[in-house]
Amino acid sequence: MSVPQPERPYVVELREVTKEYGGGVRALRGVSLLVERGELVAIAGPSGSGKSTLLHLIGTLDRPTTGTVRIAGHDVAGLSDRELSALRARHLGFVFQQFHLAPGVSALDNVADGLLYSGTPLRARRDRAAAALERVGLGHRLGHRPNQLSGGEQQRVAVARAVAGDPPLLLADEPTGNLDSAAGGEVLGVLRDLHAAGTTIAVITHDPEIAEWCPRQVRVRDGRVVADAGAGTGRRPPGPNPKRTPEPAPDAGTAGAAKGAPR
Amino acid sequence: MTRQRPAPARLGPSDVLRTGAAGLRTRPARVVLSALGIAIGIATMIAVLGISSSSREQLLRQLDRLGTNLLTVAPGQTMFGEEAKLPVEALGMVRRIGPVRTASATGTVDTTIRRTDRIPKAVTGGIAVQAATADLLTTLEGRVVTGAWLNAATEARPAVVLGAKAAERLGISRTGVQVWMGERWFTVVGVLGPMPLAPEIERSALVGFPAAEKYLAFDGHPTTVYERSAEESVEAVRAVLPRTVNPENPEEVTVSRPSDALAARAAAASAFTNLLLGLGAVALLVGGVGVANTMVISVLERRKEIGLRRSLGATRGQVRLQFLAESLLLSALGGIAGAVLGGLATAGYALSRDWPPVVPAWAFAGAVGATLVIGTLAGLYPAMRAARLSPTVALATT
Ligand SMILES: Nc1ncnc2c1ncn2[C@@H]1O[C@H](COP(=O)(O)OP(=O)(O)OP(=O)(O)O)[C@@H](O)[C@H]1O
Ligand SMILES: [Mg+2]
What we know:
The complex is a heterodimer of chains A (263) and B (398). The radius of gyration of chain A is 18 Å and the shape is globular. Mean pLDDT of chain A is 88; it is low at 246-263. Chain A has eight helices and ten strands. With 263 residues, chain A is an alpha/beta fold. In chain A, helix 5 runs parallel beside helix 6 (181-196). In chain A, strands 6-7-8-3-9-10 form a six-stranded mixed beta sheet, with helices on both faces. In chain A, strands 2-1-4-5 form a four-stranded antiparallel beta sheet, with helices on one face. Chain A has a domain at 36-59 and 78-235: P-loop containing nucleotide triphosphate hydrolases (Rossmann fold). In chain B, 54% of the residues lie in helices and 15% in strands. Chain B has three domains: 13-63 and 269-396, no CATH class; 69-105 and 221-256, Alpha-Beta Plaits (2-Layer Sandwich); 111-216, no CATH class. The model of chain B has no long low-confidence stretch (mean pLDDT 87). In chain B, helix 2 packs antiparallel against helix 13 (361-388), helix 10 packs antiparallel against helix 12 and helix 12 packs antiparallel against helix 13 (361-388). The longest helix of chain B is centred in the N-terminal third of the chain and has 39 residues, at 28-66. Chain B is built from 14 helices and eleven strands. At the A-B interface, helix 2 of A face helix 1, helix 11, helix 12 and helix 14 of B. Bound molecules: adenosine-5'-triphosphate (ATP) and magnesium ion. Adenosine-5'-triphosphate binds next to strand 2 and helix 1 of chain A.
């Protein structure tokens, strides 16, 4: 049961969360994490530390073994699988290391399909998809299919899909993991713009540069949070883009992303 | 403010179709191959049903055109097992029955017809020589193709009219030709068209009663009396015919209705049709298994897509629906292709035989039903598997 709690403006609220997998693997061993609206948080840690597991729990793709997970005020334990699906459709956007774009489908329709389960009619889905692609600097590539786009552009399409419905929380698992430095820079630029426009973002990374770039870092090791500046510290703007090459990129898309109008 | 429990949005029918079609669009070759089995099954069944209905329709139309009010009277056997004879006055008696509109007779003449006198007598070509009354053509509603039917003048002269088959066998297609009958020449004055209700006339050479008696030693006894009455009195006429024709020995008279044979053919569903239907059903079943197989593979291949859709907010039900829709679309494609092919095959075959092409509506309805059932059955298990997949496992697949 969810109870009214106006004193807790947290988008993400994890309390003493543990996750055990079959075979006695304890991926999380008591994690508490609070994220306020509008923060940009890096979740960093070595491989196998439990970052992805944490992201799955925040993303309501999985349930904790013990502890409380509350997303946008909803206690996950009190919601059915159907209701969790609805929660994801309305409140969450995901970006994965592999872009997960549908092959042979235009960028516009890939993004529009991100709104399929939110009850938006097709026409409105396409309009919002076009706007989201504009936001990530791909307004001129609407009709292109994934195989006609560079890796960075594909990941920006994936970001556009995740944010087309304006979810309050964007979760990104190694969004630059498959990209070279310049393409990674494009994606970080988009994240920065979204952050500036008010979206709450959690980025999983094992790249220290990217972690440093985020205003707030949550460091995970062996299933525990070992360092965290605390809720609210992620509201500041991020530092200078660690991946961006000094001279402006020739691709018009990057410039477009930088100019992307905050909403 | 109490938080509302989040409720998933409903997917509209067009969105269900779009997601179902999404999986098919990118794999056209596989779609064609797996829909093929269903297409073949449906096409076979539609064509079999269509062709047999077309043939039945053709028979029924023919019956309609020919009428069912024609009765024939023929001699049966005597009590002692000998060939009976109809009395010479039989035709006149039949004409006197109230509801009878027209009656005529033929009588078998014991002779042969040959192109020349040099052809041996034994070579008859299966052609019977018969005496015919002048109104035979009216009673049978037959048609002359060349020349003319016997009239008051020609029925007493050595003139002969040939049935369609008889003319064909003799190789005669024009009038004026001389043929050797009995011990003299006769002149062909006409050739008749086909007579579906009296095939024996098609194989006959017909001369007038007076001519037969005069030139061919015919005894004047009719061997068949043809009679038409009003449709509604056929049974009544049939009941009185034997006693009318042969008051002394009514049991020596056989009455039959030539249209019954056609009607029986129209009613019969041949064993061959049933066999072909069974084959079609087997093809359909195999097609269904093919679709199920394709769907299982599709689910295995698209675990990541399933994980992504779940992360985008798809419920288990919506994932299930997507794969069911895909399976239904796949079998519907096969079904539509099969129905079209079956319809074309029916039309082609029927038109080549001059039949009216008919596919019963229920056959199409059955095809639609079978397709839906197969699509559902084939998609059910794969769709359940897709829906059961946990989103994290699906996304972790590499
Ligand atoms: N489905 C699973 N079943 C069993 N063990 C699992 C499962 N998923 C993850 N684990 C284990 O849980 C631990 C944490 O895994 P997780 O994927 O969260 O790490 P990570 O920090 O994301 O690592 P990486 O940086 O390599 O992606 C690991 O030891 C992993 O082997
Ligand atoms: Mg990981």
